[in-house]
């Protein structure tokens, strides 16, 4: 596997974890897919792919948990094999439904997450902060100890009435 595939898988796993944590919310695969798509980057196609993979990954533990819970309530016949067969069939059905549901909604969330990444310049950029030495002004004078006397269009001179 290449490093881009590993990165996509890592982002999909993070999105799947978010989907599982938010399972009680309606359409939680959209949330997980959105996180995965946002983390993966601004490419919309790749965001949708990673979001869909996130939904597929979340479907597996979801199907296991749902099968364990549902198997408690399943009444089976006298044979022990029939109970395992019913549990296995239930697992397959839940996995199929969960994969379709999670994959489709995760892809939609991944697309939206990629759009948000494009809009907000990704998770790694931070806004410039006042007083940050890395964001120096180009028009900085030799001595910055004295305040600048120029007024902007939004400032009023102190002590003078506004003549607008």
Automatic annotation (TrEMBL):
Note whether Membrane occurs among the keywords: yes
Q: Which UniProt keywords apply?
A: Membrane, Transmembrane, Transmembrane helix
Location of the region described as Disordered in the Swiss-Prot/TrEMBL record: 122-164
Q: Where is the composition biased (Basic and acidic residues)?
A: 135-151
A Pfam family annotated for this chain is DUF5518
TM ranges: 56-76, 83-116
The name this protein carries in UniProt is: DUF5518 domain-containing protein
């Amino acid at each position: 596997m290449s490093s881009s595939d590993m990165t996509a898988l890592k982002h999909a796993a993070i999105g799947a974890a978010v989907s599982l944590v938010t399972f009680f919310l309606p359409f939680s695969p959209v949330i997980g897919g959105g996180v995965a798509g946002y983390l993966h980057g601004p490419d919309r196609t790749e965001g949708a792919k990673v979001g869909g993979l996130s939904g597929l990954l979340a479907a597996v533990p979801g199907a296991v948990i749902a099968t364990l819970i549902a198997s408690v309530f399943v009444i089976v016949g006298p044979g022990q094999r029939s109970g395992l067969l019913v549990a296995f069939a239930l697992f397959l059905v839940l996995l199929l439904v969960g994969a379709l549901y999670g994959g489709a909604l995760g892809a939609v969330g991944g697309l939206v997450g990629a759009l948000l990444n494009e809009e907000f310049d990704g998770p790694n950029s931070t806004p410039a902060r006042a007083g940050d030495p890395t964001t120096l002004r180009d028009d900085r004078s030799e001595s910055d100890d004295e305040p600048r006397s120029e007024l902007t269009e939004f400032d009023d001179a102190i002590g003078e009435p506004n003549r607008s």
